[in-house]
Specification:
It is a single chain. By secondary structure, the chain is of the alpha/beta class. It contains eight helices and 15 strands. The strands form three sheets. An eight-stranded parallel beta barrel has the order 3-4-7-8-9-10-13-14, surrounded by eight helices. It has a five-stranded antiparallel β-sheet with strand order 11-12-6-5-15, with no helix packed on it. A two-stranded antiparallel sheet has the order 1-2. Strand 5 and strand 6 form a beta hairpin. Helix 4 packs parallel to helix 5 and helix 7 crosses helix 8. It is globular.
């Protein structure tokens, strides 16, 4: 029997973790993803005052997708009820959290810890609000320290690869994070072939297999720089081979999300089976492709 994977104080059956997103915005999805074999599930990002009136959509590309989504529109009280139920059943669920200031995030983290939720992920690097987010070590330190001051629950800080990643990751470590998740989505755009305008109306978050080589390089370089906190790798996982690649460069687990937008549960079952298979599992199915048409997100 394979050894358990230990992530943020949780003992997981395998290192396949479902990343935060639209697919993890409902309790029934979270439970079914766990029943299908996920080692853990990260909730859609909970925010005390999520933006309203946004045109939130997904644009499928041959190598992944661009999305203009932000945070869960469900209230903190609604999520508290869900998290209490999941905690009562001792399910391996990680609550993704963000707020408009370090003080607000600390208050939210304390509320969520009170539900019995055993692990958190600080989703502080979302770039889809307003004109995008330029992260800094000082900002990461402020959010991390504020949460550490009010909770003993283990938490990871989710960061995006790019300029200054080492400084941001080490800032999170110094401020008391238990782990980091790398990477959040990256800035991307697509041009409408007829109008010449940007699809979705601007620059938004890209995820999918195209970012996996960038994230692998970032994790490898971070370990070479002496970074010792656990890292959850995230970006472009489509197969068990991808999970193993992340483990090879120093991750303790790998998050999968974008691939699940096609045949969610069968895709997850395949990835979990490949991860548990031979040391060098096959690639599995071909990358997800799409027609390049925006998919409107339902509230």
């Amino acid at each position: 029997m394979a050894a358990a994977t230990h992530v943020l104080g949780l003992s997981l059956a395998n290192p396949v973790v479902i990343g935060s997103g639209l697919l993890t915005d409902q309790e029934r999805n979270i439970r079914r993803l766990l029943e299908t074999g996920a080692g853990a599930v990260v909730t859609k990002t909970i925010h005390p005052s999520p933006p309203t009136g946004l045109d939130e959509r997904i644009l499928r590309l041959p190598t992944g997708m661009i999305n203009s989504t932000t945070y869960s529109k469900r209230s903190v009280d609604h999520w508290a009820g869900i998290l209490r139920d999941l905690a009562r059943d001792r399910l391996p669920v990680i609550a993704s959290l963000h707020a408009d200031s370090p003080a607000e995030l600390a208050e939210l983290a304390a509320q969520v810890e009170a539900t019995g939720c055993r692990a958190l992920e600080l989703g502080i690097s979302c770039l889809n609000e307003e004109d995008g987010l330029e992260d800094t070590p000082e900002r990461v330190q402020a959010y991390t320290a504020a949460v550490r001051a009010v909770t003993r629950a283990p938490f990871s800080v989710k960061l995006a690869v790019g300029e200054g990643l080492h400084a941001r990751a080490f800032a999170a470590a110094r401020a008391g994070a238990d782990a980091v998740t790398i990477s959040d989505t990256l800035p991307a755009a697509a041009v409408h072939p007829e109008t010449g305008d940007l699809r979705l109306g601007g620059v938004f978050g890209y995820s999918g297999p195209g970012i996996k080589p960038l994230v692998l390089a970032a994790l490898w370089k971070l370990r070479r720089a002496g970074f010792t906190l656990p890292v959850l790798g995230s970006g472009g996982v489509q197969s068990g081979r991808d999970v193993h690649d992340y483990l090879q460069v120093g991750a303790v687990a790998a998050q999968v999300y974008t691939a699940l937008h096609t045949d969610m549960y069968p895709t997850l079952a395949r990835i979990v089976a490949e991860t548990a298979g031979p040391e060098n599992p096959g690639r599995g199915s071909e990358p997800v492709t799409g027609a390049g048409r925006p998919e409107r997100v339902r509230p």
